[in-house]
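For the sake of transparency, this paper describes our internal protein records without simplification. The remainder of this section carries one protein's record, kept here as part of the documentation:
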Amino acid sequence: MNYEGFFRSQIDRLHQEGRYRVFADLERAAGDYPKAAYHREQGGKTDVTVWCSNDYLGMGQHPAVIEAMHTAIDRCGAGAGGTRNIAGTNHYHVLLEEALADLHDKQAALLFTSGYVSNWATLSTLAGHLPDCAVLSDAENHASMIEGIRHSRANKVVFAHNDPEDLHRKLSLIDKGRPKIVAFESVYSMDGDIAPIAEICDVADAHGALTYLDEVHAVGLYGPRGGGIAEREGLSRRLSIIEGTLAKAFGVIGGYIAGSSAMCDFVRSYSSGFIFTTALPPGIAAGAIASIHHLKNSSAERERQQDRVARVRARLDAAGIPHMANPSHIVPVMVCDPVLCKQISDTLLARYGIYVQPINYPTVAKGTERLRITPSPLHSEEDIEHLVASLSAIWSEIGLSRAA
């Protein structure tokens, strides 16, 4: 077989379909978020404003986070030095797990190297070891959850997105005494819709199922202390397992689960994705602790972000730029064509100094391609006006239809 020819043909197909992904070579400017320098392929660099970062609150550049990381590096060095089981557990890891358990009102928490790994490792371990387990998975669940369930080899049943009635119908077909896990998200990252957590918990409880909630796009952003949608709605204690990330609103990297002491200890003891992975560097853990502590005690960032989101939506409406309505901080500007989506993104970057990554298949369904805008507390009024004016000019230039 001509291996190189196969690789090239598959890449060529992505180009032809308009969904080949290009990395934007960015250099974030410390202390000047959301500004960054964009390194052009042909050489040189220009200043850009980033409008699609998952550093939702700018905590990746918060002085308290940076100071904590510097202090930890000076004290402990760069790396953890091993897996958590073999020389890699630093005291910062212990403190961080305690902070996360407290954030979610749980007995314990367990750290992973990323949110993807925490979903994959936890779901594959739980569903793979519970005898004859069935996993009820929301139709729009993240790839990391899907992969974890698949790896477990447990029976997977998909229920209609955010539909407790369909979940009830599917669970009714499964023996009540059989182990079951209901896996879903709070805020869905592409459409920005929010799950009916209480209703899903009601159904799961009635059928004796564990509940597994991914709060990746909600932790830090919702709730009086940043504990997510479940905390905001007073539901944290009803959920069996809450999963989250340190890489979005908390501004660093890593993933985690929070739940009962026995459950966390079970995953710690049986998950290969945890056992055989080098621990997070102490500096990362220290930065996460500082970020969590700050957002537990400050709502200013959350309130300012919500104000910026409302302002962006209002200005898009005034300009007739179509965007998906939802109750979250995610603003999907709908283009619905992969080639045009990338063209608009490229024009924003080259002509207007605005970086928004095109979101195409398979991240979203074909025909729903979009620009996923994530306003932060640090986007100024001028930034918003420049974004909307630039989009409006491109909309007219291409001849795209406007929203009523």
